[in-house]
Design brief:
Length: 323
């Protein structure tokens, strides 16, 4: 217990709040820690490592006061299950299915990364302080170990952050190993239900049978899968179509992306202010353009609007190597 309390003291309360992608990774680690905690000795993280992940996730949600883009259920704007407007649901499904069609037109058989390689990506973040209108632009890069056996490196608003290798038997979501990605079904409903059933036996229910928490899990985990810059052919459009099946999504027209392009936002109405966080798509072609997120300063006095998009990615052999 003393070691665990010391971990809490190690957290730098004066540090800048984590960005949306950083919070997402913290939640991944916490989920993975929880999933492996009950397994045999040696196959899951130690109490010390699990607590470190939990601290990261708690601080991430505590600083921002919200979760991520996706919500917890298929509710309408007032949060009452089953009251979403069919017109809104259909509009969101139109965008997501359109994005799937666009992806299939571009989809080519990618080069599969080896387990010993790294997935490189470069992201532009345009951050605006809400009250003053001051704008700062960051170029963040990431090097993710494919089989998570090596330290991974990422940048968050220009700061370097290292991710420790996974413990034996551990992993990340979304998976980076090609063999694991290829096992995911490309039937949209089966894909959603397989992801919801991670860590347990899959069942024969339909998406409409899922409870509030499971709907949130489906939307969240599918959204995270789509953040992988490289996926087996056909999996990305299948994930868009699976998202279209999950209740609770809403369109937000007339939004801007980080390049100043006008698009349509896709948010989830199940948790918090859905209009603060969303995916952005081209309103005509339905090409995916980027993300909108928000963060609150450590003092709680400043709010920042973040627009981001990936500008480059590739497969490399070592950290800090570029394609």
């Amino acid at each position: 217990m003393n070691d665990e309390l010391e971990l809490l003291r190690e957290w730098d309360a004066g540090a800048a709040p984590l960005t949306g992608p950083a919070r997402d990774r913290a939640r991944h680690r916490l989920r993975n820690a929880m999933a492996h905690e009950g397994k045999h000795s040696g196959t899951g993280p130690s109490r010390r490592h699990a607590l470190r992940l939990a601290v990261a996730a708690v601080v991430a949600t505590g600083v921002t006061g919200t979760a991520m883009l996706v919500g917890t259920d298929g509710s309408g704007e007032a949060g009452t299950p089953g009251t979403s407007s069919p017109r809104v649901e259909n509009a969101a499904a139109t965008v997501l299915n359109g994005a799937a069609a666009w992806e299939r037109e571009q989809d080519k058989e990618p080069v599969a990364p080896r387990d010993d390689q790294f997935i490189y990506s470069k992201r532009i973040i345009k951050e605006t302080e809400q009250k003053t209108g001051e704008v700062k632009t960051y170029t963040d890069e990431m090097w993710d170990s494919v089989d998570v056996s090596k330290p991974s490196l990422s940048m968050e608003l220009g700061r370097e952050m290292w991710e420790e290798p996974a413990v034996e038997g551990g992993g990340v979501w979304p998976p980076r190993k090609w063999s694991e990605l290829e096992k995911l079904p490309q039937d949209p409903e089966k894909l959603a239900m397989t992801i919801v059933s991670l860590g347990s036996r899959a069942d024969d229910r339909a998406i409409s049978d899922l409870d509030k928490h499971e709907r949130y899990e489906a939307y969240w985990l599918l959204g995270e899968l789509l953040k992988n810059p490289v996926l087996p052919q056909g999996l990305r459009p299948a994930a868009y179509e699976a998202l279209a099946l999950v209740p609770g999504v809403k369109t937000i027209p007339g939004v801007k992306d980080s390049a100043g392009r006008t698009g349509v936002g896709i948010a989830h109405t199940g948790r918090g202010s859905y209009e603060s966080k969303y995916l952005i798509f081209d309103p005509a072609s339905y090409e995916f353009l980027g993300f909108r997120d928000e963060r609150i300063s450590a003092s709680g006095k400043k709010k920042y609007i973040q627009l981001s998009h990936v500008v480059d990615w590739g497969i490399v052999d070592r950290v800090k190597q570029r394609p």
